[in-house]
């Protein structure tokens, strides 16, 4: 049976500018379902419809599919040692990042067949996070390989772009409305994008920052969480201006998974505190919601996705659950 918690999230009065208005009370219902395969680190859900939520079992080497209406789980086996990270899905099937096996895989859900697309070149080829462009192409990060990659959907050919900063560890990645990729460089205090086939790096104000995940809002702002320093940040790509707000738990926060909703609000999980805490931020009032503990504890919540149809954020936990947070 799923675990449900109905939470009234009151703003904590964390207005960071004088005179900023306080946000209204919000009710968020968090539901978690226990994944039937123990200790497999379910993570990085992707919603393909009301009855189809994809996720990967990083430690179990599988792709999972979950029907929240029936509560049923289905498992698709991958090769031993693949160590899958992200999964994204479209009409062609479910695409997964074969992080420890140098490939991007495409699963046909009907037949169970998998097409493996090997990354070109030598060296570390650890595909990490992926996202679609509007034409079905895929942008992805290659973390210890220090590259950003592009997969052309029709020809299934890949192009890898070198990140200038050595050991930058490209990590979280999103594609904006103009089909431009943005990535965090977790081994540095920089973000990155690709312009005319070249990686462009953007330095953040504090050289101690370690940005880990990203979200993009409808106004074109690029948002990030600083895992090391405990900040939420916003980059204006047009001006290069960066604004930052300390998260509720400060340096102990370790903010990790994040997503933006359809009202321009940001949501993230503080993983440096146990249990992990789900937190929202309203840019219009510059206020955080009261942090709320995740019932399972979370362990570490690594990635989240917003589904506009259900107005919910989906996440996986190291406590072996798939979670859904319904937003007001």
Structure overview:
This protein is mostly beta strands and 328 residues long. It contains no helices and 30 strands. The strands form seven sheets. Strands 1-2-30-29-28 form a five-stranded antiparallel sheet, with no helix packed on it. Strands 23, 24, 25, 26 and 27 form a five-stranded antiparallel sheet that branches. It has a four-stranded antiparallel sheet with strand order 3-4-5-6, with no helix packed on it. It is globular and about 50 Å long. The relative contact order is 0.15.
What's the mean pLDDT score?
93
From the helix content, strand content and strand pairing, which structural class follows? mainly beta
Low-confidence stretches are 6-24
> Mind summarizing the main beta sheet?
5 strands, antiparallel
Count of strand segments = 30
Portion of residues within helices: under 10%
Spatial shape:
globular
> How big a fraction of the residues is strand?
over 45%
Distance between the termini: 24 Å
Count helical runs. Answer: 0
Order of helices and strands: EEEEEEEEEEEEEEEEEEEEEEEEEEEEEE
* C-alpha-based Rg, rounded: 19 Å
**Biggest sheet, spatial arrangement of strands:** 1-2-30-29-28
């Amino acid at each position: 049976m799923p675990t449900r918690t109905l939470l009234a999230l009151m703003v904590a009065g964390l207005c960071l500018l004088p005179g900023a208005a306080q946000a209204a009370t919000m009710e968020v219902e968090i539901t978690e379902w226990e994944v039937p395969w123990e200790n497999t680190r379910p993570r990085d859900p992707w919603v393909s419809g009301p009855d189809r939520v994809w996720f990967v079992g990083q430690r179990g080497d599988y792709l999972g599919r979950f029907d929240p209406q029936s509560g049923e789980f289905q498992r698709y086996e991958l090769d031993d040692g693949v160590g899958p990270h992200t999964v994204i899905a479209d009409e062609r099937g479910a695409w997964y990042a074969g992080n420890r096996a140098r490939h991007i895989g495409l699963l046909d859900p009907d037949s169970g067949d998998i097409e493996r697309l090997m990354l070109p070149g030598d060296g570390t080829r650890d595909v990490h996070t992926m996202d679609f462009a509007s034409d079905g192409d895929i942008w992805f990060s290659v973390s210890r390989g220090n590259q950003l990659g592009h997969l052309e959907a029709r020809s299934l050919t890949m192009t890898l772009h070198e990140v200038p900063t050595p050991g930058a560890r490209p990590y979280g990645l999103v594609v904006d409305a103009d089909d431009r990729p943005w990535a965090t460089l977790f081994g540095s205090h920089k973000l990155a994008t690709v312009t005319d086939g070249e990686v462009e790096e953007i330095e953040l104000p504090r050289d101690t920052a370690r940005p880990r995940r990203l979200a993009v809002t409808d106004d074109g702002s690029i948002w990030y969480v600083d895992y090391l320093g405990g900040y939420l940040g916003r980059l204006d790509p047009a001006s290069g201006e960066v604004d930052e707000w300390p998260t509720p738990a400060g340096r102990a926060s370790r903010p990790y998974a994040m997503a933006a909703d359809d009202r321009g609000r940001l949501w993230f999980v503080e993983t440096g505190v146990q249990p992990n805490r789900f937190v929202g931020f309203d840019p219009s009032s510059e206020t955080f919601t009261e942090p709320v503990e995740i019932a399972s504890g979370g362990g570490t919540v690594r990635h989240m996705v917003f589904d506009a149809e259900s107005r919910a954020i989906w996440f996986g936990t190291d406590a072996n659950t798939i979670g859904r947070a319904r937003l007001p």
